[in-house]
Amino acid sequence: MIEVAEVSFRYDGAKPVLRRISLEVHEGERIAILGPNGSGKTTFARCLNGLLIPTEGQVLVDGFSPLQHPYEVRRRVGMAFQNPDSQIVSAVVEREVAFGLENLGVPTSEMRHRVAEALERFGLSGRRLHPPHRLSGGEKGRLILASLWAMRPRYLVLDEPTSLLDPEGRREVREAIDELAREGVAVLWITQYPEEALWADRVLVFFGGELVADAPPGKVLDDPERLARWGLRAPFPILLNHRLRSLGLPLPPWTPTLR
Known about the structure:
This protein has 259 residues and is α/β, with parallel strands linked by helices. It is 36% helix and 20% strand. It has helices at 41-48, 70-76, 93-104, 108-121, 137-150, 167-182, 217-220, 224-229, 236-246; strands spanning 2-9, 18-25, 30-34, 56-61, 77-80, 155-159, 186-190, 202-207, 210-215. It has a 6-stranded mixed sheet, sandwiched between helices. Strands 2-1-4 form a 3-stranded antiparallel sheet, with helices on one face. The longest helix is centred in the C-terminal third of the chain and has 16 residues, at 167-182.
């Protein structure tokens, strides 16, 4: 479990970017993180694996503090950044998956097994000897997930993993997230697409450095006016439902029955 207790953060004496954030992350959860630019989403995400240390409060990952046990925390919490190309460091796909394992000191025989398993798991076995820059956007996203998964994290934090992808690439990443969650990995992802939050188990909304919502999608995304006050737009299915009901159609309020 990740425990976030009264976490605040500020850069170089500026005003707080995060204000007294408290929550827990449990095994196998799919958590979407929404909020306008500058709301604290990325700062929060980077506090989870120790890239940033809170100014106040604390983060514990399975009981380990990022400040006192950074290796244990980063071994448990994998993080992917917005642009896959900025995170890929190797010239061959299978070497990219092996890179993190080498840093962990995984024995060669075990490393080969994990690399092959990860490539198969994310549908990249046929691309194992390809240069990563020849992959599609969706394949690059899956390569990053394969590289993280091979290191056996308990939690994944993804910073806008679909922002540079076409609809097919976003679908591929979504399917990978769903499968990881079924295996017990908790996945948190920042997204600029409210529709992507519809299939999460929980939705976190950050606004002005505060956590203003933490609930299932049906309770967070069902009010377009409230979302607008937070600088967000409602997902299209919800907007359509509200519009048709306002025209007098006898529809029930939107509920997330299809996820």
